[in-house]
Structure formats: structure tokens, C-alpha cells
Design a protein that fits this description.
Elements lengths: L1 H5 L8 H15 L6 H8 L3 H8 L2 H24 L5 H18 L5 H7 L6 H27 L9 H20 L4 H12 L10
Length: 203
């Protein structure tokens, strides 16, 4: 009897599995790449089922942005919270941006959502704001500690230095999409960060 049951209909994906799969699709292909009907087909979930679970596309995107924020915090948090020198951490931080861009050529999902700002529902906008604020707090705390250790120029505010580092996410995406080589984009990033990082050698 057990063997016969195992051949029945596959078990429905859990809510977290649906969110994980949806996040990967949005992240890789872009938030505007497919209709809700196509997304349901890709996720193998009915449209009524999606509405029951998430209240609609806005709820699904909100869940994806929340999960993405948690994923980004864990990924980059592991880099900035180790015991390595700041310059080494910064180099790994930038390396990770390049690696993720290779996997997800549409770029950071938060960056994508920011560009889609006018088309997002309220739940998605709230999740977007929370994800941005949470990640900025991690970077700001990291830069603050680096400044105390003398790794950041004293005449640059912690907030400005944090925004400059975060701007490199867009720099990587726009540079590579614009046809620049990774080597050229990396040189541009190093040159940009030399104004705030001490010493200037980043990697």
C-alpha cells in the first residue's frame, strides 16, 4: 500500500518553497519578465491557490523581497562580520557582487524593485523599504567600525561612505550590462573607493 501511495500526485510545494522558487525567477529574469499567469505556471501553483496563499501578486512579491533581504543580509553579513581587515572584507564584498551578477544578470532584486517602484503594491513597497533599511544598517555598522579602526578616511561621514559602497552594486550591473569588461568595472570601483578607503590598496 505504501508503494502505491508513493506513486500518487506529488506533494504540493510548501509556502516557503513557492517563495524561494518565485524569488529565484524574479531575481534571475526580472520582476517584469512574466505575467502572473506565467508565474503561476512556472511555480506549478493555481492562480486561485496563489491568491489564497499570498492575496495576489503584491503579496507574493512582498514575500520574495523579504526573503531576498534575509538572504542578502546573511550572505554579506558573513563577509563583513569576520575578523579580517576591512580592506580584505571590502574586496570580498565586491567579489560577491560580481559572482551574484554572473548568476543573476538582471541584478540585485532590491535594485530591480526600486526601479519598478511605481508599479509595486503597498505590501511590496513596505517589504522593499524594510529590506533596504536592514541591509543599509549592516553596511553602516560595518563602515562605522572600520572608521573607528582608521580604515576609512576621517573626513568622510559614515553615511556617505556606506552609500558609496552600496552604489557599487549598481556600478557592477550597469557597467557589465553596458559592455564593459569585469576588469574595467573593477578598476572603476577601486578608483571610486580610493577616496574613502585607507589604505588605497583594496585587493
Amino acid at each position: 500500500m505504501t508503494a502505491l501511495r508513493s506513486r500518487g500526485r506529488p506533494r504540493k510545494a510548501s509556502k516557503i518553497q513557492i517563495v524561494e522558487n518565485a524569488m529565484a525567477l524574479y531575481w534571475h529574469d526580472g520582476l517584469s519578465s512574466r505575467s502572473l499567469n506565467e508565474m503561476c505556471r512556472q511555480l506549478e501553483v493555481s492562480k486561485p491557490g496563489l491568491y489564497r496563499e499570498f492575496g495576489g501578486e503584491d503579496g507574493l512579491i512582498a514575500e520574495c523581497l523579504t526573503l531576498y533581504g534575509q538572504t542578502a543580509n546573511e550572505t554579506f553579513g558573513a563577509i563583513v562580520k569576520d575578523d579580517k581587515p576591512f580592506q580584505f572584507q571590502l574586496s570580498r564584498f565586491i567579489d560577491k557582487i560580481f559572482t551574484l551578477h554572473d548568476q543573476f544578470p538582471e541584478g540585485c532584486l532590491v535594485m530591480q524593485a526600486t526601479q519598478e517602484h511605481r508599479d509595486l503594491g503597498q505590501a511590496s513597497l513596505d517589504a522593499l523599504r524594510s529590506a533596504r533599511e536592514s541591509f543599509f544598517e549592516i553596511v553602516h555598522h560595518w563602515v562605522q567600525n572600520a572608521k573607528k579602526r582608521g580604515a576609512i578616511a576621517s573626513n568622510v561621514s559614515t553615511k556617505v561612505a556606506s552609500f558609496l559602497i552600496l552604489a557599487q552594486i549598481h556600478c557592477v550591473h550597469s557597467g557589465l550590462v553596458g559592455g564593459l569588461t569585469k576588469e574595467t568595472v573593477r578598476e572603476l570601483i577601486d578608483l571610486s573607493l580610493q577616496s574613502v578607503v585607507r589604505p588605497a590598496q583594496l585587493h
